[in-house]
Amino acid sequence: MSGPVACVVGWPIAHSRSPAIHRHWLKTYGIAGDYVAKPVPPPEAAAFFAGFAQSGFVGGNVTVPHKEAAFAAATDHDEAAAALGAVNTLWLEDGELHGGNTDGYGFLANLDENAPGWDWPGLAVVLGAGGAARAVIWSLVGRGFDPVIVVNRTVERAEALAERFGPTVRAAGWDAVPGALAEAQILVNTTSLGMTGQPPLDLDLTPLPDEAVVNDLVYVPLETGLLAAARRRELTAVDGLGMLLHQAAPGFERWFGQRPEVTPELRAIVVADLEQHR
Ligand code: ATR
Questions:
Q1: What residues are labeled active site?
Q2: Cα–Cα distance for residue pair 67/222, rounded to 1 Å
Protein backbone atom coordinates (compact mmCIF):
# COMPACT_ATOMS: atom_id res chain seq x y z
CA MET A 1 0.00 0.00 0.00
CA SER A 2 1.34 3.45 -0.85
CA GLY A 3 0.79 6.68 1.02
CA PRO A 4 1.62 7.80 4.53
CA VAL A 5 1.72 5.22 7.32
CA ALA A 6 0.98 6.04 10.96
CA CYS A 7 1.15 3.70 13.94
CA VAL A 8 0.08 3.12 17.51
CA VAL A 9 2.96 2.38 19.85
CA GLY A 10 2.48 0.45 23.07
CA TRP A 11 3.26 -2.73 24.99
CA PRO A 12 1.25 -4.90 24.68
CA ILE A 13 -0.55 -3.51 21.65
CA ALA A 14 -2.29 -6.46 19.94
CA HIS A 15 -5.72 -5.56 21.35
CA SER A 16 -5.61 -1.87 20.42
CA ARG A 17 -8.75 -0.67 18.62
CA SER A 18 -6.89 2.26 17.05
CA PRO A 19 -6.04 0.48 13.76
CA ALA A 20 -9.74 -0.34 13.24
CA ILE A 21 -10.69 3.31 13.84
CA HIS A 22 -8.07 4.86 11.53
CA ARG A 23 -8.46 2.25 8.78
CA HIS A 24 -12.20 2.93 8.74
CA TRP A 25 -11.50 6.62 8.26
CA LEU A 26 -8.87 5.97 5.53
CA LYS A 27 -11.45 3.90 3.67
CA THR A 28 -14.29 6.38 4.26
CA TYR A 29 -12.32 9.34 2.90
CA GLY A 30 -10.59 7.37 0.12
CA ILE A 31 -7.11 8.17 1.41
CA ALA A 32 -4.16 5.98 0.37
CA GLY A 33 -2.20 5.13 3.51
CA ASP A 34 -2.18 2.80 6.45
CA TYR A 35 -2.21 2.68 10.23
CA VAL A 36 -0.51 -0.19 12.03
CA ALA A 37 0.09 -1.46 15.56
CA LYS A 38 3.75 -1.21 16.56
CA PRO A 39 4.73 -3.25 19.63
CA VAL A 40 7.68 -1.68 21.44
CA PRO A 41 8.95 -3.32 24.66
CA PRO A 42 9.66 -0.79 27.45
CA PRO A 43 13.49 -1.14 27.37
CA GLU A 44 13.41 -0.16 23.68
CA ALA A 45 11.03 2.80 23.96
CA ALA A 46 13.57 5.61 24.37
CA ALA A 47 15.59 4.44 21.34
CA PHE A 48 12.43 3.92 19.25
CA PHE A 49 11.19 7.48 19.86
CA ALA A 50 14.69 8.96 19.44
CA GLY A 51 14.80 7.37 15.97
CA PHE A 52 11.16 8.08 15.08
CA ALA A 53 12.01 10.58 12.32
CA GLN A 54 13.89 7.80 10.48
CA SER A 55 11.26 5.11 11.14
CA GLY A 56 9.22 5.76 8.00
CA PHE A 57 6.06 6.63 9.96
CA VAL A 58 4.49 10.07 9.47
CA GLY A 59 3.36 10.02 13.07
CA GLY A 60 1.46 7.91 15.52
CA ASN A 61 -0.46 7.40 18.68
CA VAL A 62 1.22 6.40 21.90
CA THR A 63 -0.42 4.31 24.57
CA VAL A 64 0.43 2.56 27.83
CA PRO A 65 3.19 2.42 29.05
CA HIS A 66 5.01 4.82 26.71
CA LYS A 67 3.27 8.20 27.04
CA GLU A 68 5.97 9.64 29.34
CA ALA A 69 8.81 8.28 27.17
CA ALA A 70 7.19 9.91 24.12
CA PHE A 71 6.90 13.16 26.05
CA ALA A 72 10.61 13.02 26.89
CA ALA A 73 11.57 12.36 23.26
CA ALA A 74 9.41 15.07 21.64
CA THR A 75 11.20 18.36 21.05
CA ASP A 76 7.99 20.40 21.11
CA HIS A 77 4.71 19.87 23.01
CA ASP A 78 1.20 21.20 22.60
CA GLU A 79 -0.49 22.84 25.59
CA ALA A 80 -2.25 19.65 26.74
CA ALA A 81 0.87 17.49 26.56
CA ALA A 82 2.87 20.12 28.47
CA ALA A 83 0.19 20.28 31.18
CA LEU A 84 -0.07 16.49 31.48
CA GLY A 85 3.59 15.52 31.02
CA ALA A 86 2.40 12.79 28.65
CA VAL A 87 2.11 12.45 24.87
CA ASN A 88 -0.47 10.33 23.03
CA THR A 89 -0.07 11.81 19.54
CA LEU A 90 3.18 12.26 17.61
CA TRP A 91 3.88 13.97 14.32
CA LEU A 92 6.90 15.19 12.39
CA GLU A 93 7.51 18.75 11.28
CA ASP A 94 10.75 19.61 9.45
CA GLY A 95 12.21 16.35 10.75
CA GLU A 96 11.45 17.32 14.37
CA LEU A 97 9.29 15.14 16.63
CA HIS A 98 6.25 16.97 18.01
CA GLY A 99 4.07 15.60 20.80
CA GLY A 100 0.47 16.37 21.66
CA ASN A 101 -2.11 14.97 24.01
CA THR A 102 -5.70 14.51 22.83
CA ASP A 103 -6.98 12.43 25.79
CA GLY A 104 -8.56 15.47 27.46
CA TYR A 105 -10.07 16.58 24.15
CA GLY A 106 -11.54 13.08 23.69
CA PHE A 107 -12.97 13.06 27.19
CA LEU A 108 -14.67 16.45 26.70
CA ALA A 109 -15.89 15.75 23.16
CA ASN A 110 -17.50 12.49 24.34
CA LEU A 111 -19.46 14.29 27.05
CA ASP A 112 -20.31 17.24 24.78
CA GLU A 113 -21.74 14.75 22.28
CA ASN A 114 -23.55 12.42 24.65
CA ALA A 115 -24.55 14.66 27.56
CA PRO A 116 -25.06 18.14 26.03
CA GLY A 117 -25.07 20.86 28.71
CA TRP A 118 -23.23 18.60 31.18
CA ASP A 119 -20.63 21.22 32.10
CA TRP A 120 -22.46 23.79 34.11
CA PRO A 121 -20.01 24.71 36.86
CA GLY A 122 -20.19 22.48 39.91
CA LEU A 123 -18.40 19.82 41.88
CA ALA A 124 -16.78 16.89 40.11
CA VAL A 125 -15.73 13.56 41.60
CA VAL A 126 -12.95 11.64 39.82
CA LEU A 127 -12.22 8.08 40.91
CA GLY A 128 -8.57 7.11 40.37
CA ALA A 129 -5.28 8.97 40.12
CA GLY A 130 -3.41 7.27 37.24
CA GLY A 131 -2.57 8.55 33.77
CA ALA A 132 -6.19 8.64 32.59
CA ALA A 133 -7.21 10.62 35.68
CA ARG A 134 -4.66 13.31 34.85
CA ALA A 135 -6.27 14.15 31.51
CA VAL A 136 -9.75 14.06 33.03
CA ILE A 137 -8.86 16.33 35.97
CA TRP A 138 -7.06 18.84 33.75
CA SER A 139 -10.08 18.95 31.40
CA LEU A 140 -12.60 19.38 34.22
CA VAL A 141 -10.58 22.23 35.74
CA GLY A 142 -10.42 23.81 32.28
CA ARG A 143 -14.21 23.70 31.98
CA GLY A 144 -14.58 25.47 35.35
CA PHE A 145 -15.47 22.62 37.70
CA ASP A 146 -14.65 23.62 41.27
CA PRO A 147 -13.80 21.69 43.33
CA VAL A 148 -12.59 18.55 41.56
CA ILE A 149 -12.40 15.82 44.21
CA VAL A 150 -9.90 13.09 43.32
CA VAL A 151 -10.55 9.84 45.15
CA ASN A 152 -7.87 7.16 45.18
CA ARG A 153 -6.99 4.00 47.10
CA THR A 154 -3.42 5.29 47.35
CA VAL A 155 -4.19 8.79 48.60
CA GLU A 156 -0.62 10.00 47.99
CA ARG A 157 -1.18 9.68 44.23
CA ALA A 158 -4.31 11.83 44.49
CA GLU A 159 -2.38 14.36 46.56
CA ALA A 160 0.35 14.52 43.91
CA LEU A 161 -2.30 15.40 41.30
CA ALA A 162 -3.84 18.03 43.60
CA GLU A 163 -0.40 19.59 43.89
CA ARG A 164 0.12 19.44 40.12
CA PHE A 165 -3.19 21.03 39.14
CA GLY A 166 -3.65 23.57 41.96
CA PRO A 167 -6.12 24.36 44.75
CA THR A 168 -9.26 23.53 42.73
CA VAL A 169 -8.23 19.87 42.96
CA ARG A 170 -8.62 18.11 46.30
CA ALA A 171 -7.42 14.63 47.24
CA ALA A 172 -9.62 12.23 49.19
CA GLY A 173 -9.88 8.58 50.21
CA TRP A 174 -12.79 6.27 49.36
CA ASP A 175 -14.46 6.99 52.71
CA ALA A 176 -15.17 10.53 51.44
CA VAL A 177 -17.18 9.26 48.43
CA PRO A 178 -20.76 9.27 49.84
CA GLY A 179 -20.41 12.86 51.10
CA ALA A 180 -18.82 14.06 47.86
CA LEU A 181 -21.43 12.36 45.67
CA ALA A 182 -24.22 14.29 47.41
CA GLU A 183 -22.78 17.50 45.92
CA ALA A 184 -21.54 16.12 42.61
CA GLN A 185 -22.50 17.38 39.17
CA ILE A 186 -20.42 14.67 37.51
CA LEU A 187 -18.82 11.37 38.59
CA VAL A 188 -16.03 9.93 36.43
CA ASN A 189 -14.45 6.50 36.92
CA THR A 190 -10.85 6.40 35.69
CA THR A 191 -9.85 3.31 37.69
CA SER A 192 -9.68 -0.18 36.23
CA LEU A 193 -12.44 -1.34 38.59
CA GLY A 194 -15.38 -2.78 36.66
CA MET A 195 -13.22 -3.74 33.67
CA THR A 196 -13.51 -7.34 32.47
CA GLY A 197 -11.18 -9.44 34.62
CA GLN A 198 -10.86 -6.77 37.35
CA PRO A 199 -12.80 -6.45 40.63
CA PRO A 200 -16.18 -4.71 40.35
CA LEU A 201 -16.71 -1.06 41.26
CA ASP A 202 -19.30 -1.27 43.99
CA LEU A 203 -20.65 2.18 44.60
CA ASP A 204 -23.97 3.29 46.05
CA LEU A 205 -25.16 6.07 43.72
CA THR A 206 -28.13 6.98 45.93
CA PRO A 207 -26.55 10.23 47.20
CA LEU A 208 -26.00 11.69 43.68
CA PRO A 209 -28.30 14.59 42.71
CA ASP A 210 -30.93 13.66 40.10
CA GLU A 211 -29.28 15.80 37.40
CA ALA A 212 -25.80 14.30 37.84
CA VAL A 213 -23.87 12.76 34.93
CA VAL A 214 -21.95 9.49 35.34
CA ASN A 215 -19.08 8.70 32.97
CA ASP A 216 -17.06 5.48 33.01
CA LEU A 217 -13.76 5.47 31.09
CA VAL A 218 -13.90 1.66 31.11
CA TYR A 219 -15.36 0.37 27.81
CA VAL A 220 -14.75 -3.37 28.17
CA PRO A 221 -17.51 -4.17 28.94
CA LEU A 222 -19.29 -1.27 27.30
CA GLU A 223 -22.09 -1.35 29.83
CA THR A 224 -20.26 -1.44 33.17
CA GLY A 225 -21.88 -2.06 36.54
CA LEU A 226 -21.43 1.64 37.29
CA LEU A 227 -23.30 2.74 34.15
CA ALA A 228 -26.06 0.19 34.76
CA ALA A 229 -26.47 1.52 38.32
CA ALA A 230 -26.58 5.10 36.99
CA ARG A 231 -29.29 4.17 34.47
CA ARG A 232 -31.32 2.44 37.20
CA ARG A 233 -31.19 5.77 39.06
CA GLU A 234 -32.27 7.53 35.81
CA LEU A 235 -29.06 9.57 35.70
CA THR A 236 -27.31 10.50 32.45
CA ALA A 237 -24.82 7.67 31.83
CA VAL A 238 -21.99 8.03 29.28
CA ASP A 239 -19.72 5.12 28.33
CA GLY A 240 -15.98 5.34 27.69
CA LEU A 241 -15.89 4.30 24.04
CA GLY A 242 -16.67 7.81 22.78
CA MET A 243 -13.49 9.13 24.42
CA LEU A 244 -11.42 6.57 22.50
CA LEU A 245 -13.11 7.50 19.21
CA HIS A 246 -12.84 11.27 19.70
CA GLN A 247 -9.20 11.29 20.90
CA ALA A 248 -8.22 9.65 17.61
CA ALA A 249 -9.57 12.43 15.36
CA PRO A 250 -6.90 15.18 15.77
CA GLY A 251 -4.06 12.74 14.98
CA PHE A 252 -5.77 11.49 11.84
CA GLU A 253 -6.15 15.07 10.65
CA ARG A 254 -2.45 15.83 11.23
CA TRP A 255 -1.16 12.71 9.45
CA PHE A 256 -3.67 12.39 6.62
CA GLY A 257 -4.92 15.97 6.13
CA GLN A 258 -8.61 15.34 6.69
CA ARG A 259 -10.59 16.02 9.85
CA PRO A 260 -12.53 12.76 10.35
CA GLU A 261 -15.97 12.44 11.88
CA VAL A 262 -17.00 10.22 14.76
CA THR A 263 -20.13 8.60 13.37
CA PRO A 264 -22.57 5.91 14.58
CA GLU A 265 -21.11 3.71 11.82
CA LEU A 266 -17.58 4.02 13.27
CA ARG A 267 -18.89 3.28 16.74
CA ALA A 268 -20.71 0.18 15.47
CA ILE A 269 -17.50 -1.12 13.84
CA VAL A 270 -15.54 -0.76 17.07
CA VAL A 271 -18.36 -2.27 19.16
CA ALA A 272 -18.41 -5.30 16.82
CA ASP A 273 -14.62 -5.55 17.11
CA LEU A 274 -14.87 -5.44 20.92
CA GLU A 275 -17.50 -8.17 20.92
CA GLN A 276 -15.46 -10.38 18.61
CA HIS A 277 -12.34 -10.18 20.79
CA ARG A 278 -14.08 -10.46 24.12
P1 ATR B 1 -4.20 4.47 34.02
O2 ATR B 1 -2.91 5.10 33.60
O3 ATR B 1 -4.88 3.71 32.92
O4 ATR B 1 -5.13 5.42 34.68
P5 ATR B 1 -3.03 3.28 36.42
O6 ATR B 1 -2.01 4.33 36.52
O7 ATR B 1 -2.60 1.86 36.60
O8 ATR B 1 -3.78 3.29 35.02
O9 ATR B 1 -4.22 3.60 37.44
C10 ATR B 1 -5.19 2.69 37.77
C11 ATR B 1 -6.12 3.33 38.80
O12 ATR B 1 -7.05 2.33 39.24
C13 ATR B 1 -5.40 3.83 40.03
O14 ATR B 1 -6.06 4.97 40.51
C15 ATR B 1 -5.56 2.65 40.99
O16 ATR B 1 -5.47 3.00 42.36
P17 ATR B 1 -4.01 3.04 43.10
O18 ATR B 1 -3.34 4.29 42.65
O19 ATR B 1 -4.34 3.05 44.54
O20 ATR B 1 -3.31 1.79 42.64
C21 ATR B 1 -6.95 2.20 40.65
N22 ATR B 1 -7.20 0.81 41.06
C23 ATR B 1 -6.80 -0.30 40.41
N24 ATR B 1 -7.20 -1.41 41.08
C25 ATR B 1 -7.87 -0.97 42.17
C26 ATR B 1 -8.54 -1.62 43.27
N27 ATR B 1 -8.59 -2.97 43.35
N28 ATR B 1 -9.12 -0.85 44.22
C29 ATR B 1 -9.07 0.50 44.14
N30 ATR B 1 -8.46 1.18 43.13
C31 ATR B 1 -7.86 0.45 42.18
A1: 67
A2: 24
